[in-house]
Amino acid sequence: MSTIGLILLLCTVLSGLVSSNSQTVHKRFEYKFSFKPPYLAQKDGSVPFWEYGGNAIASGESVRLAPSLRSQKGAIWTKQPINFDWWEVDIMFKVTGRGRIGADGLAFWYTTQRGDYNGEVFGSSDRWNGLAVIFDSFDNDNKHNNPYIMAVLNDGTKNFDHKSDGTTQLLSGCLRDFRNKPFPTRARVEYYLNTLTVYFHNGLTNNEADYELCFRAENVVLPRGGYFGLSAATGGLADDHDVIHLLTSSLYSTQQAGGQQISNDEQQKLSQEYQQYQQKLEQQKEEYRKEHPDEVRDKDGEFDDWFESDGQRELRQIFQGLGQIQDVMRDLHKKVDEVIGKQMNSLSMLTAVYSHSQGQPLQPTQPGQVPQMPALPITRQDWEMMATNNQIMINTIAELKGFMIEVSRKSDSLLAGGAGAAPSPQLLNEMRDGLNQVKAHVASVAQRMAAAPPVVAQPMCPSVSCVSTTTLLVVITCQLLVMFLYGLYKERKEAQAKKFF
Fold it and tell me: Cβ neighbours of residue 191 under 8 Å, at least 6 residues apart?
């Protein structure tokens, strides 16, 4: 009982600490270090309180840091450094592409100086001083550990190791797939009391609360007064790297000194700036509506059919995934069938060799298949049997040839003598006798070949289709019948011609 009581006491203390800690943290939205749709970009293409460059493109709905073209780089940075110590950044982004492998990825930055817009490290500068949370989608070290999310600290003196994907320099990380998701993926980067925590939303659902812990690192000391930034880059492969919003909140504790509190004058100043910004935005929207009346009319459903909904996109991606699974299963079935076929062939060859070694004749493994002759010597007796069979076949062919010549001669005489009168009964009797003789000789040849002694081992015959005796007899009979009918037809035509004249 004492052990159970101790466990309950510890649970109570821990829950109290967690609840007290959650109650002491306060958030405040920082609009000067954030951007979100709609009307993310202004009329002139600029983003308020931010600067972007390189191949980055800002629109009203998102910021495309790097388009799906090769060797593209772009970045966006805050104009002013932050003036608070602890912060939380919520990033919503989409990385989409047609390839199975993406490249190269995007990165979130907190550095003392703004980086370049065409840098070497995911579109930003190398040797930075601060933090980089990198979403790497290309496997440079070929270890099959991408897409990967990692945090890398730098004091401004180290170069990023691209060959190893930064594995020797990372602070911590997790293996997560953030490409081609049905919904936008999210990342929440929190830095509070020298503890860095990264949460990840996989984009498989539309629930904003479906975050999971990626990693947590303690005793992380970052320089004060840094800049926020986002950058992306493509290489030989390409993806669209779109950032939909970046929302920054400053974190405060009730135990902090009053120096973090904002005076009334500063609050009034900030509220006036916000109201002026809202008025200016509404004025620009009204001017745009007046200048482009055709583009803003019928916003309720005119262009709904031009785009696919979230459900349609999700269903299409599900069907695509099922199609890919079906293709993979089809390839696996083919490979399994090949392996089974090779095993059956090997087993049949081993069986044939073993049977021949035991003195048994070779048997075909399948119906219609020629038995395979193992690599064994042929005896003199086998050669003599082969020569005898060949001589029988030659004699049979010679006899058939003689009968065919005789039938052809009688057919020619029938045609020559039947031009002026009907065929006589004598000729018909001769033809009938000739056919009977052909049948008798063919039957005798078949019996003679059937009575030949079987051959124990024969060499492989060439794959040539031989004509059977029955087929040959049918062909000869049909030929004689056609010739006889043709003679009757010709005789009738000549008789009708004589009556007409």
Answer: 86, 87, 88, 110, 131, 197, 220, 222
What's at 409, amino acid-wise?
R
Half-sphere exposure of 328 (CA within 13 A, CB side): 6
Name the pLDDT band for 50 (thresholds 50, 70, 90): very high
Q: How confident is the model at residue 348 (pLDDT cuts 50, 70, 90)?
A: confident
Element (H, E) at 435: helix 425-450
Q: Is 58 helix (H, G, I), strand (E, B) or coil?
A: strand
**H-type helices in 297-373, by residue range?**
310-357
CA atoms of 139 and 145, how far apart (whole Å): 7
Question: Rounded to an integer, what distance in angstroms lies between the CA atom of residue 141 and that of residue 164?
Answer: 5
Rounded distance between C-alpha atoms, residue 113 and residue 122, angstroms: 16
> Pseudo-torsion of CA 197, 198, 204, 207, nearest 10°?
50
The phi, psi pair for 242, rounded to 5°, reads -110, 130
Q: In Å, how far from its chain's centre is CA 43?
A: 41
Q: Is 122 exposed, middle or buried, given 0-12, 13-18 or 19+ CB atoms closer than 10 A?
A: buried
The neighbour count for residue 342, using CB atoms within 10 Å, is 10
pLDDT number for residue 488: 76
Q: What is the DSSP letter of 164?
A: T
CB 373 within 8 A of CB 460: yes
455 pLDDT band (50/70/90 cuts)? very low
Model confidence band, residue 277 (pLDDT cutoffs 50, 70, 90) = confident
Q: What is the DSSP letter of 31?
A: G
Say how far residue 118 (Cα) sits from the centre of its chain: 32
* Two structure tokens written together for 253: 């504790």
pLDDT band at 187 (very low <50, low <70, confident <90, very high): very high
- pLDDT above 80: residue 223: yes
Alpha carbons within 13 A on the beta-carbon side of 61: 3
Report, as an integer, the average pLDDT of 276-286: 87
Closest CA to 314 of 210, 240, 206: 206
Quickly tell me which residue has 């109290």 as its tokens.
16
Nearest in space to 199 (alpha carbons), one of 91, 96, 110, 122: 91
Tell me if 251 sits within 8 A of 192, measured CB to CB: yes
Please write down the HEC assignment for all residues of 170-197: EEEEEECCCECCCCCEEEEEEEECCEEE
Query: Whats the size of the chain, residue-wise?
Result: 501
- Among residues 253, 133, 132, which one has the least CA distance to residue 192? 253
Closest CA to 227 of 116, 91, 131, 111: 111
pLDDT band at 265 (very low <50, low <70, confident <90, very high): confident
Q: Does the reported pTM lie above 0.85?
A: no
Residue pair 50/246 in contact (Cβ under 8 Å)? The answer is no
Reply yes or no on whether the pLDDT at 447 is more than 60: yes
Percent of the chain whose predicted confidence (pLDDT) is above 70: 71
